[in-house]
Amino acid sequence: MSAALLTLTGISVLGLAASFLIAMTASSSADISLHVLMAVFATMLNLLSHSLMMFYLLGKGRAVKEALAEYHLTGNYVARVAALRGPVFSRGTYAMVLTMVTAIIGASVDVRVLPTWPHSTLAAVAVLVNVWALWTETAALSGTQAIVREVDARVTG
Fold this sequence. Notes:
The protein is mainly α. It has helices at residues 2-24, 29-70, 77-110, 116-156. Helix 1 runs antiparallel to helix 2 (29-70), helix 2 (29-70) runs antiparallel to helix 3 and helix 3 runs antiparallel to helix 4 (116-156). It starts with a helix and ends with a helix.
């Protein structure tokens, strides 16, 4: 499941980056249409993937907590999972908010209410923050899997 979540998030970040590059090199209205189409799809995928990532990490934390209670195990496993999960929640939320604001501002640019520079600036920052969030999510998933393996080894061994 974690590989699927990372793949989904990675594809969404690549889609946002590709949409940004298409917009920066656009020379026709067809290029702008492609930019909008790709950006809308990547934005929806991005919001879904970061949200799923957060719910998955919540579920893993709960599973560890339940295993500890069921098998009467002690250890700081729950606190370790929570420490890994915390940065994902903040950085994932920043990434989602910036992506949504960028899309909303983009709609204002499309109807010529705003100039392009606020949208372009936000888009560049959103892509960078999404890469940061993806890196954080990768580390959190890896750490959480190691904790789950430790708990499994104590349960079965």
